[in-house]
Amino acid sequence: MCEVRPPDNRLHEFGREVLAEHDETVSIEGNGVDDAIDTAARTADRARARIDDALESVDGEVRARYDEFRLDVEVDGGPVGVDRVDLGGEIDHVAVTDDTYHVFDYKTDRIDTGDVDAAVEARMEHHRPQMVAYAAGLQTADPTRDVVVRLVFTDGECRIARVAGTDDAVDRLLAMLDQRLQDLLSK
Q: Which positions fall inside the PD-(D/E)XK endonuclease-like domain (predicted)?
């Protein structure tokens, strides 16, 4: 719901369509389905509000914002022994300033309530290859802009965590791919 932003007057209809489209059976009685859809909508609103807050503190004016930003680029694959590496995907939310792409990726993982900071750090590390790929793709498409990547954890208090180290993302991505290939070949 964060990305598609259905109109309020179609929220429940949209939620039911999504469930039906994915052949999801819901065993909630009475208004339970509508209550679950309302909860999902509130979570999405909270996540979007956190993104708005984060964008208020960036340098420069936000010139454009995109939900489900489609990215398809080609990277020279020479460093990993192939002609090219094709990167493609949809970035949940991108905001553009004069010199920076601000990437926000929604994560609906359940965060361990024990040590929240450690759980967020572990999820950030888990998702790092995806975030580096986003940064590499955007840097390839427009090398004049920096890329700042943030994960938006929608569980609980809706935390935003900045993923460090997206400089030289293309080189880092190729190094990660090379290591992965070496690991696979050594098995």
A: 39-184
